[in-house]
Specification:
Elements: H1 12-22, H2 30-41, H3 62-70, E1 76-85, H4 94-98, H5 115-118, E2 125-134, E3 138-144, E4 149-155, E5 158-163, E6 168-173, H6 188-196, E7 203-213, E8 216-225, E9 232-240, E10 246-253, E11 261-269, E12 287-290, E13 329-331, E14 338-342, H7 357-366, E15 367-372, E16 375-381, E17 386-390, E18 394-398, H8 402-412
Parallel strand pairs: 6-12
Antiparallel strand pairs: 1-2, 1-11, 2-3, 3-4, 4-5, 5-6, 7-8, 8-9, 9-10, 10-11, 13-14, 14-18, 15-16, 16-17, 17-18
Amino acid sequence: MAPFESDDSVSAADAEELRSARRRKAARYLVPATVVGVAAATIGLVPALADSGDPDLPKISAQELIEKIATSDVQQLSGTVKITTDLGLPDLGGLEKSLGSGAGSSSGDGSSADPSTKLTELASGTHTLRVAADGEDKQKVSLLEDAAEYSLIHNGKDVWGYDSGSNSVFHTTVEKGDGQQEEVPATPKDFAEDALKAVDKTTSVTVDGTAQVAGRDAYRLVIKPKDEGTTVGRITVAVDAKTGLPLKFTLTPASGGAAVVDAGFTQVTFAKPAASTFDFTPPKGAKVTEEDAPKASEHSDSDGKDLPKDLPKLPGGASGEAEDFKGLDVIGDGWDSIATFDTGGQGIPSGSEAGGGDFGGFLDSLGDKVSGKFGEGTVFKTRLINALITDDGKVYVGAVTKDALVKAADAGK
């Protein structure tokens, strides 16, 4: 576990020994990007805290609570969950209609039951889900909609997606240990573990009292960056006092306001789900789309080296393939570090250059034109992740301010 600063009584010598023993390079942009990717492509879990008041629990240090998370081994659970995501993305307006978007729709030859398409709905608004898990080979998440339901089921080697609105089925297979299970729904523990990768000398970690989540007593762990250039304000994780399982995850931006991601259980039980929960047979008349499992070589770069495990998710939720992240590098360290790579192409056209209309207006609403020693480019903004794409195709992305991106591009020229 990486070193951290807390309110606990730890001697300077002990802290330095921890830092020396556990220090590692921190690609801080990956943490919030991974959080966004998970929110867009897998499960998010969130409720408000219960009104019954904060429980009286034994005192625990930040280090002890982190170790409790690390050693948590909950294999079986089921429950009802919610996720609220507010990235501050612009309203699509007429663009959504012009592109033919809508519930149950699919584009091209793709399936509306494909999880990399369907679960991007979690990237904005508030959604209710049902979840279940029985070990590493059996998980299910169902996204509840007004007039339909979408389910993603992992049972052994099979991964099924089913969209009841369009009666469409997506199917692929995974091999245990081949890394492909990343596309199967995650739990709040995955959110917390991604955040804890950020913990080092640039981070303050404290225990901030207790709470009740889904009727269970929990400790609140607070993770705060010290770097001033980051857009991340604080991360709060409610940790189940008995099992060590993270029950609630909240990421608040440095700019304040509503949380970017607020995720957690509203109801949970740790009883073994019925085996039938994970059974699935395509309904009669359903359109079934089969997708071959990606080969291992697709997760390596052109030199045969393994790509970073925690690459940010690309639009659609799939993790980056080698050609998308060729030459990936990280500038600096800490929470204000910036990832950079070269697309080998051109920058993003302005709205007028794209022909105007709804699509042109959408492009203009996404970004700000900037210039510097590097030349010209466009900064695309959310409340958490910002990205600069230069007119010659270079990309700078991180949980940092627009000025930090321009400064990084100037330095790299």
